Amino acid sequence: MTICEKPRNSSVTECAAIKFCQSNWSLNAMKFRAKMLDVLYMREFQAIAATLAKLAKDCVMIVAQERMHFIVNEEHCSTSSPLVWVSIASKDYFPEYQMTPARPEQEFIVLVMSAMHLSRSLAVLRSGSSSSVHSCKLNLKQIQFPCISVIASVVSPNSSEPREVVHDVPVTVIPASDWPSFMLPKVPNTQIVLGVPSLRLLRSLIDKLKNISPSLIFHGSTAGELNLVAESEMATITTRFSRLLLHKPDQGQSGAGAETSEPEISCSVDTRKASAFFNALQLPNEEIMIGIDSERCICLQLDIRSNVVLHSILPAVCV
Length: 319
Fold this sequence. Notes:
Blueprint: H1 11-29, E1 31-36, H2 39-55, E2 58-63, E3 67-72, E4 83-89, H3 90-93, E5 96-100, E6 109-114, H4 115-121, E7 132-142, E8 146-155, E9 163-173, E10 192-196, H5 199-209, E11 215-221, E12 225-231, E13 236-241, E14 245-247, E15 264-270, H6 271-280, E16 288-293, E17 297-305, E18 308-315
Antiparallel strand pairs: 1-5, 1-7, 2-3, 2-6, 3-4, 4-18, 6-9, 7-8, 8-9, 10-14, 10-16, 11-12, 11-15, 12-13, 16-17, 17-18
Protein name: Checkpoint protein
Keywords: Nucleus
Subcellular location: Nucleus
C-alpha cells in the first residue's frame, strides 16, 4: 500500500502530493478490456484504425458501457483534414467487453493516443497477413506508463501452436474535468441525404478535381440527383450522379430533422478536405450517404454495419 504523507512546511508540495495520489487512484480504479473473436470483425476494426491514421497524428478514444468511439481532428483541425469520428456498438465486435470508470458516477473513459501506433499494433489483423488470427484483446493497463495493450493470438503457417503478439500503445488518460473538450460530435441536420453507390468512382473523381479548383460544390436534388461542380478560370466541370436513393434525414441525432421542401440544395466545401477523407478510407464499403446542409456543411456517413458507423463533416467555404 502506498501512503501519501502530508509535507510539513510546503502547501504547494502538499497540493502536488494530493493530486498525484488522486491521479494514481483514478488510474488504478478504471478498468477496460475487450476481446474480438470473429476474423471479419477484427479486419474491419483494423481498417477503421488505418483510416484514422491517414487523417491525423492523434486520435481520441471514448469508452462507454455499450459503445466505443474514436475521434480525429476534434478541435483544432488541420487545414487539410476533416473532422471524422467512428461509433462502434460493443456487442457487435466484442463478445467480451468490460469497462469500469474511475468513479461510479462517471460514464466514460477518455484516452488520447497516436493513431499511427494504434494502426500498427493492429496490422497483424489485416487480410493480407500470412498468419491466422484467433483472437485479439484490448486491455487498459499501467506499466511504466498508461497504455492500451493489443494482444493478438496468431498461428503461423509453420507452427500449429498459437503465439501472442503484444503491442503496448501509450495513452494519455483525460480527467473528467477536461471531458467537454473531447466529447462526441453531433450529426448536424441536413435537408437532403443521398446514397451514392460508387465510392471508388467518387474517390477517383474528387482526387482529380482538387487539382482544378480549391472548392467543390455538392448540388443535390429531391429527384435523386447529385452534381459535383468544380469551377476554375478556364472551365467549369460538372459530374452528375442520377437515380440515387433519397434517404430521410436522421432526426435522432440533433433535434428535429431539417427536411426541406426545396427541390435543390447546394453547398461548397474545401476540395482538399474532401479528397483527404475519401483517400483515407480503408474500408471495403461501396456505398456512402451524403447529406447536404445548405451553405453550412456536407455530412458523410459510411455504414460499416448496422451499429458501426463512420461520420465526417466538411464545413462550407465561401466561393
